[in-house]
Amino acid sequence: MKSIQRISFLFLCLLVLGSSYAQTTDYESKIRALNLKKEKIKEQEKAALKAEIEGVETRLRKGEVTQDEAQKEKEEYARKRALNIENRIAIVDNQIALLERNKGEELILQRSDTAAYTQIRFGWGNGDEEDIEQFFGFSIKNNDRKNKVKYDRRTYSDLVMTFGLNDVIVGGDAGSGSPYEIGSSRFFELGWQWRSRVFEKSNWLRFHYGLSFQFNGLSPEGNRIFVTNGDQTELIDPGFNVRKSKLRMDNLIIPVTFEIGPSRVRERNDRIRYSIHRQFRLGFGGYAGLNIGTRQKLKYDQDGERIKDKLKRDYNTGDFVYGLHLYAGVGGVLVYTRYELSPFFTNAAVDQNLISLGLRFDM
């Protein structure tokens, strides 16, 4: 239990520090690359001039041009290459000045407003960009100008997937021992969410809401299985070797989250967009929902045969679930943790509350 807490805290600290460092040094690395590009430009143009002069010398030796004609051609090639160096380096210098002045923030020119096109890309967390529809990481950008563009789009939607490890806090004491194997106790969640900007002129606070299917598994330590004894659910040794024992509870939940973090403003004549692509995000909120099914899965050997049983019962799990969650990360990849306030088993002598740590992907 303590190891999960330490890992969760470490992940959150690394994400905060890493995102802060990345935001302050990303444009500086671009500037270093542009300075190297200027040297490459000089080398490239000088090499081209050398090849052109050698070509003139070859023609002069063959008698195809006179000495005066050859000299004029060399001077013309030299002027052209000198201007090329000057113009190309000026373009790079302007790019550097733009990055330094705006600390890496840029307004990106789009394709012509009169051109219609469709672009397919792959990546995470781009669903807040203009004219983009995204599903499972594949984004389709449709620039059909027959459709009227909304000037300010405040609400976006994403497919959300989370998965990771489960454990329990027994009796409200995080230091108490857990009867479950962390590596084999896992969760998976898949749902659809909407994300709305809270304030009209600022995107630092967003409100998320949606609908998700949640699957929680618990695997007991040792050779034990779950059995019901009246209104109690107990772990017992069945008297035979169990290769696998896992209890799974499936929920339909409504998650609600407030999210904070920076964003980039992309403004054009006909629209304004607030992008959180590659930006640090911190979300905190809760969820509530219904238990739609509980089952135990057993694998064991009997009389030389491998047996698989799926026992669908309520196992004294609650009809309703509710809890708190927190996530942090950059763009569409985040570290996710949650704590279930509702006990996993109702009427238990000692409450067991789920705590989870994993990854979340906004697709």
- Helix segment count? 2
Please estimate the helix content: 25-40%
Q: What can be said about the biggest beta sheet?
A: 8 strands, antiparallel, barrel
- Taken in chain order, the helices and strands follow as HHEEEEEEEEEEEEEEEE
Span from first to last CA? 30 Å
Structural class: alpha+beta
Rg for CA atoms? 31 Å
C-alpha geometry = elongated
List unreliable stretches of 5+ residues.
20-24
Strand content: 35-45%
Work out the count of structural domains.
2
Q: How many individual β-strands?
A: 16
Give the overall pLDDT as a whole number: 84
Strand order of the largest sheet: 4-5-6-9-12-14-15-16
Coiled coil: 24-102
Protein name: Outer membrane protein beta-barrel domain-containing protein
Signal peptide: 1-22
Keywords: Coiled coil, Signal
Tags for this entry?
363 residues, alpha+beta, 2 domains, eight-stranded antiparallel barrel, three-stranded antiparallel β-sheet, 2 helices, coiled coil, Outer membrane protein beta-barrel domain-containing protein, signal
